[in-house]
Write the structure tokens for this entry.
Amino acid sequence: SVTTDAALRTSLPDVYAVGDCASFPSARYGTRLLVHHWDNAVQGPRTAAANIIGAGADGASQLLAYDPVPYFWSEQFDRFVQYAGHHGGADTLLWRGDPADPAWSVCWLRDGALVAVLAVGRPRDLAQGRKLIEAGARLDPVRAADPAVPLKSARADAP
Ligand SMILES: Cc1cc2nc3c(=O)[nH]c(=O)nc-3n(C[C@H](O)[C@H](O)[C@H](O)COP(=O)(O)OP(=O)(O)OC[C@H]3O[C@@H](n4cnc5c(N)ncnc54)[C@H](O)[C@@H]3O)c2cc1C
């Protein structure tokens, strides 16, 4: 793989790397990520292009960091499978539903915050979970483990 900095720059001047070949440091997950999925190959170039033309928050002097919530979807044995996040550093795994059933999800938490979600036939869990991960939201583990409770209603700080 090609090692980049947070702005997707390689060690060679004016050379950027994106997609399957590029390993980047993720501040969100506190580790280097090498993501082999289509969404990453689409999103990375936005940041690289912005940095090349100097479109960072502070003009050319401020480079944008690439720090996505990784995402992929696939179809496996007629099941719609989606995953968002990175669960390498997770300390808690919660099932939402029974994996013997056609539709179920898994949530991974780290220090109470949602860091990754795997949804099989439950696209709402993925859509809501992705936003919760981006927000660094903490979940109530009891409510989050109840598939009848929408994930967005399982926030630990929900009213
Ligand atoms: C079988 C399979 C199934 C997959 N399923 C999914 C899925 O369900 N969901 C998902 O999100 N992702 C999936 N992926 C991953 C996804 O396809 C990749 O993450 C994505 O295509 C990466 O895009 P990329 O542009 O980084 O690399 P690539 O798409 O590999 O593009 C690299 C290009 O560079 C060219 N190239 C290589 N070397 C040179 C060279 N020296 N000179 C010029 N050109 C060169 C190659 O020919 C290629 O066209 C799958 C991948 C495979 C192989």
User: Anything to note?
Assistant: The pocket of flavin-adenine dinucleotide is lined by residues 19-20, 36-39, 41, 72, 74 (CB under 6 Å). The CA atoms of residues 91 and 110 lie 5 Å apart. The chain is about 20% helix and 30% strand. The longest strand covers residues 113-120.
